[in-house]
Design goal:
With about 170 residues, the chain is an alpha+beta fold. About 30% of the residues lie in helices and about 20% in strands. The longest helix is centred in the first third of the chain and has 21 residues. The N and C termini lie far apart (about 65 Å).
């Protein structure tokens, strides 16, 4: 047992004795720092193409063999535009609260439900009234056929860019 333990510790550069304690601590500290920095700086990517979404901490895909499909009589764009016409701004209404473009992201879960809607480039605490309304519109669009990867239903991170017609305030167009 003693020889096995010595062989294992020698292979990774850890030795015994009073002079090598500092060296051992430096090696272990360096290994811990390297492992922590790699885990926190980049999202975990997996060999099958999935990765860990930083907002939800869910395993998601960007592209799969069968992408999620919104199930509706009118389609996603028409349903979003219809709901956007119902937007009632708070008074007084400042025009600059509606951005010209929104870069949205949302996860279509493996059960066909939308979650974790986000606006890229903006923190949740800084969302305007209008942006919060858009997030709630997407959270209400729950009728999806989930995406499939290798025949299995999976979570898919969807990204959409919308240009907003400020003049009519009638909704979004792609």
């Amino acid at each position: 047992m003693e020889n096995c333990l010595t062989n294992i510790t020698m292979n990774i550069g850890i030795t015994r004795g009073p002079l090598s304690q500092l060296r051992n601590k430096c090696i272990l500290g360096l290994l811990c720092a390297l492992m922590c920095s790699c885990a926190t700086l980049t999202p975990q990517k997996w060999p099958d193409g999935s990765f860990t979404d930083e907002m939800s901490n869910k395993c998601v895909y960007l592209f799969v063999e069968e992408m999620p499909q919104y199930v509706s009589q009118h389609g996603l764009q028409q349903d979003v535009m219809s709901l956007m016409t119902e937007y009632a701004p708070p008074e007084p209404y400042p025009d600059d609260n509606i951005p010209g473009t929104l870069n949205l992201g949302y996860i279509v879960n493996s059960d066909g439900k939308v979650s974790d809607v986000r606006i890229y480039g903006k923190e949740l605490k800084n969302y305007t009234h209008f942006e919060k309304y858009v997030v709630n519109v997407y959270l209400g669009l729950q009728n999806w056929k989930p995406g499939k990867h290798l025949g299995k239903k999976v979570n898919v991170l969807m990204k959409e860019r919308f240009v907003i017609d400020k003049q009519s305030r009638s909704g979004l167009s792609r």
